[in-house]
Amino acid sequence: MGNIPEPVDIKPRIPPTPNTNTAPPANDRAARLAQMAADAESHTSSRLISLEQRRKEEELREQAEAKARERYGKQDTKGAYVREQEKMMMGGSAMGLGDVLGRRGGKGLLRDDV
Question: Could you read off the pLDDT of 66-99 as tens digits, one per residue?
């Protein structure tokens, strides 16, 4: 048992490298910080400008809606298509659906024979 060789480390040994993780000079850090602050400021100002534009567009849209409501609010709540269909069906009179069906005598209605 004395003929057993010593274990050999087969991993390659990497020589230690000099410490390259040194902090950058203070003036470089200050310059980067100033650049980041300027970028943030320009981003904020451009964002404020776009928000102001959106607000103005929204105001214009709301004014247009208010004008449309004022103009069409004087009419009844039915849409133009529904009013047109009622004119065609009821002959343009002010009769309601019940009156029209009563005048027809029930013609055209489906009946469930019970």
Answer: 888 787 766 556 677 777 777 777 666 666 667 7
Tell me the DSSP string of 23-82: PPPHHHHHHHHHHHHHHHHHHHHHHHHHHHHHHHHHHHHHHHHHHHHHHHTTS-SS-HHH
Whether 100 contacts 90, CB under 8 Å? yes
Provide the residue ranges of all domains of the chain, joining segments of one domain with +: 26-93
Higher-confidence residue of 88 and 33: namely 33
> Is the pLDDT confidence value at 19 over 70?
no
- Cα–Cα dist 111/101, whole Å: 14
pLDDT value of residue 5: 76
Whether the CA torsion 68, 73, 79, 83 is positive or negative: it is negative
Using an 8 Å Cβ cutoff, are 85 and 96 in contact?
no
